[in-house]
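Changelog excerpt

This revision adds worked examples to the README so contributors can see how folded entries look when concatenated. The first example is reproduced verbatim below.
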Amino acid sequence: MLDPRQSLEFERPLVELENKIGELKQLAGGELLAAEIKILERRASRLRAEIYSNLSPWQKVQLSRHPLRPYTLDFISRLSDEFFELHGDRAFSDDEAVVGGLGRLKVLGGRPVLLIGHQKGRGTKEAMRRNFGMPRPEGYRKGRRLMELAARMKLPIVALIDTPGAYPGIDAEERGQAEAIAKNLEVMAGLPVPIIAVVIGEGGSGGALALGVCDRLLMMEYSVYSVITPEGCASILWKDQAQVEVAAAQMKMTAEDIKQIGVVDEIVAEPPGGAHHDFDEAARLVGEAVARHLDELVALSPQALLDGRYAKYRAIGSFLTETASQPPA
């Protein structure tokens, strides 16, 4: 059962109803109790459909940040066998906001891959240790080291994106935050192995893109992807945090918006009520999508992968051109 105190405001009526159903199921009741449970389950089903079919962009942003949402390691533990985490950037330290290692994908019969992603923390102590999923330069350099290792081993790469953005602290800037991100973009663009990136929560700015240059970009149904947070946008444009809902709508940052403009290749459905309601089902849906795309990519030659990746990013965006008027004859 979900804790209503950790639920979003718009989903609390549903969480309370589902918890009541769970409590009734734990009681030893007769037919009368079973009938009441069925009535409540139908009511919960209708309420769930009503809530999640009419979510605003801001509510989807809130879902992408849900404190109970599965994080990268939650997916990795369900997607892979024999995962072996690798640490350190071999230059400064081990940034725990980025995790990565070698594993075998269950959905592809144990195919070896490199799994990498941003990792947020649960609870105050772990969240601080993971820096709330905001990597410093050493996190991106660790990621680059592991992806270059995967290329040498001819292993596909699966990247899970979930970060508010790169850490903006002075220490990160002193150690070359911008250079670390830029180098990752350059390196990922030229890796001769399949790369699939999945936005599982927040995809924030260059901090997300540093693990997101790929052959196929997938987004979970209630994930978001944008150059800045709605809070940051509202602060810059209106200098008013009350405008975050307006900002979220105008930024076109939801999975549906990103699909419409041709950036994302597939939207991965989530369990009813969101991924935080069923980690196992969420991982199964992501795994099936990854397997489907990976099956297509592993059949391509390294040069075909690079050519397709180049074409993918060249094709993003729409442009209006004006034709110069012809002078009168």
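The second example, added in the same revision:
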Amino acid sequence: MPGKLKALLTGAIVPLVVLALWEACSRAGFFSPIVLPAPSAVAVRWWAYLTPMEPWSPNTQSWLAWALSGELPGDAAGSLYRVLVGFAVGAGLALPFGLLMGASNRIYALMNPLVQILRPIPPIAYIPLAIVWFGLGNPPSIFLIALGAFFPVLMNTIAGVRHVDGIYLRAARNLGACQWTLFTRVILPASTPYILAGVRIGIGTAFIVVIVSEMIAVNNGLGFRILEAREFMWSDKIIAGMLTIGLLGLAIDTAVSRLNNYLLRWHRGLEH
């Protein structure tokens, strides 16, 4: 525990220094409060964004319902829902497709040209088509997020399968392993580090795409609220929304990192 606490405190040094310099420069008048408000102003706006407008009263059904009735919890929940569903769809399609392309030279040769044509197209370019195909609301946003998460997971899965050391494959065959055993006991575990790296990249891409899609296709979420704040020149609320996105991304990345450490404990043991 002391080691974890020390690492946490070490990681907090640079952000705290940046916040202190930012606050000092803002109070000294180096920046306009409209262009770049002070961190203290952002914190006040973030708290106002988090808490409900009406004070709590005994007539409220529950304290929890009152606490979650502010804009921020609803917007964060909406964005997080779209990220998780879109990522699940994109990664769920990319994983088996990538395993097939990586394990079969014939399928790879057949599908790789199409993949390489579609892969460089940014998900943002699909926004007009997504609106035409799915209308407004969650469906186009989830489609764009799934598209953004699909290719990082796909390409890393293909790379992981195709980079399995041939010594492992020959050793397994010499020991009499069938094709299914070879795939499940050798190829899949050896490619897991690549797959999990693609998962982390895909989640990061999903957070980028969700904000853009919410600015266009939906009427709630952190991206929608940032665009709304821009219309009224509420820079403090824009930054508060941005920081909320960063905190959500940090929480999910930390969870994925711990999952990586758990699933790859055998791999780390070999490294040490």
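Reviewer comment on example two: Residues 71-271 form a domain with the MetI-like fold fold (CATH 1.10.3720.10). The two ends are 22 Å apart (CA to CA).
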